Amino acid sequence: MTFDRAAGLVPYLKRLGISHLYASPIFTATSESTHGYDVTDANEIEPAIGGRAGFDRLVKALKAADIGLIIDIVPNHMAASLENAWWHDVIEKGENSRYAQHFDINWSRRLTLPVLGDTFETVLENGEIALKPDPKTGNPSFAYYENFFPLAHETWQGRESETLQLTDKAEIATLHEQQPYRLMSWRDAPRDLSYRRFFEVTGLVGVRVEDKAVFDDTHRLILELVHTGAVDGLRVDHVDGLADPKAYLDLLRQEAGADCYITVEKILGEGEHLPDDWPISGTTGYEFIASLSHALVDGEKLTALRKAYVDVVGKPVDMEAELRAAKLLMADKNFEGEFTTLLTLALSIAETAKLTLEEKAVRSALRELLVAFPVYRTYGTKQSLPPASQDRLQKVVEKVKTSVNAPDPQALDFLTHILTGEIAEEALSEAANFRIRFQQLTGPLMAKSVEDTLFYRQNMSLALNEVGAEPLPRAFSPDHFHAEMKTRLERQPDALSSTSTHDTKRGEDARARLYTLTEAPELWAECVARWRQLNQSNVSQLDDGAAPEPAVEWMLYQALAGVWPAILQPDDNAGLEALEKRFLAYVEKALREAKRRTNWGDGNETYEKAVLDYARHLLASANQAFLKDFSASMQPFIRAGLVNSLTQSVIKLTAPGVPDIYQGCEALDFSLVDPDNRREPDFATLEQQLNVDQKLSAFTEQSVFSGELKQHVIATLLRCRQETPTLFRQGDYLPLIAKGKKAEHALAFARLDGDDALIVIVPRLVFKGIEQGLMQPNIEHWAETEIALPEQLANRHYHNVLNGEALLLEDTLKLETFKERPSVVILRG
Q: What share of the chain is helix, strand, coil (3-state, %, to 5)?
């Protein structure tokens, strides 16, 4: 998406009712980058999407339409790429580089570059490395395929010709030993890396923005864009990766000014809140998705769905044990290097403090402490832990001490004292380093354990396997949703309310559809059993078991249920082919992320091929028996999911928070995980079908299936927000309780600000109530169901925002009054 093409969308965005365009990183990134988070130059705007001139044209178009601009910034990391001039300089000059301290590098040893397909010795022996002049500088370099790694000047100056003519492998190896870096196999990165990376991505190196000089160098253009008024807000990527998030945010706020809207990408655990002293508006909204699940999941039937899943898997599922296993895998293997760094630091601190501890005991204690952490991190500084973080740590320590895997208490107490700063004075500096690195590891370990391992292993309900979701079984209820919204209004009313992002596991409408499986678990189980039987002949028997195994079959059918286009017919060969390409990419990623029988580092081609062939067979045009059965069986789930989509959108636009509409999600989005969710929407169709003046009564069932109705409802509510902004930003949140025959099928709340009031009533759990179709009047839908109105809302005139109908409400609102479908009611008074 270039700046000029984005500028061309501005009239549409204005008509839709958008207040701000929110852009992914716009700074120069690696060649062919598809996302921009691999920044190579933080002070240049990416030429491939239009450069500074194109950016300025977009800003001009936005300002003419009175639309603001929010940009995504990436302070935690940059690309560890030869295209990054700073990184290139560090490779060439080592600690003598001006940028040596810009990156989080352990300079007690040579810089490791995990870029080879094998060890340096093997690659050299195979003739894959040679000495050649760098095409850009002409200087001698190690050439490895298309990459040219510069040699330190002192190792070749005055001997340029001689150096370039070296062919003796021993002499080349000696020259390599003289460099400030060490070329190594990418496979060794998890256990032997000299720099902090982003999660498991060795191509992204940590940046030390805690250093004011580094902050200044990496934020020069960002702050210029803010100060000139081109940019109105900043979204801070992965704030938990920073050494001291609060200090960074304090400095960013100071430099950006009080009026700059700042949000942070931060995943909050159950019951966790942002620190009160962070000078920001809130998070980017993952916790809002988790709250929404309480409104749309049938908590009473989750046990039945869990039983059906266990029956297919063939054994009970202990989620606590599964979570522990995933975290141990991360600590022991995927983050082995980071773990070893912490262990080495701890042992050094013990020696400095003259404490006698066995390495085995400290290792076990550190492992258990990391695995037990229930949230992303604490927020200790170089000095100590703040009170809230101390409380969090103490609870974790007590849990570890009383667990069946409790480590040596002396070793655990020692680590606790390091984290709290209660250590010998001579060891305080090392303790501060340990504290910061411990906190920078707990986040990635949690993310990769839960989101990118457990949520691909345990697939009882894919809708609940979402970024920000709790991994352990929990109760779901509308009461919990209301409580979360009241807390949201109190603590972060200006935070983003997201339902889809580039990081979510599936598009919002796919998730909304999959919520409906919790309403009909027995029916879903019957369908899966039948489909497995229909496709049984395509299950392969491998040496290590069936492929796909039953648990993966369950996952495949559920993933297909979520992504299946609402109007796709089983005889639409072109549609099936398009879906197959997307689905197979997802399946491959899901298998590797699960890390059961294959993974990204050590692929099991035989297993992957067998499962992909099975998935391919599901969508083969010749597999009509299954396709017809699947399509027909999915219809009630599709219809109920479309109602959920409307409910979800209405809540997002009326509950506390700032609604964030991911590209194309103003209509329907049945995307899978990235990169599928980065496909460009059909903006031409979206522009064509938007008619904000259309009456609700004019919509047909087809308009629901096309997403046109969802788009209309969103546009209508955005206009409503613009007319009464204070109501939505600061208005009280009042849960309303339905009583009567259909009470469990209604979710209701009100927003109140002085004379302005909004009553929102949306349907939930409608799977068994839409047999007559989505748009057909149904007198029974709200039969004998009513809402008692509190004094502030009673005896007032209202009009229905969606259809203009006027009415006077006394102290009771009878829902059967509203016969028009879909049964979304938004009353403004």
A: 50, 15, 35
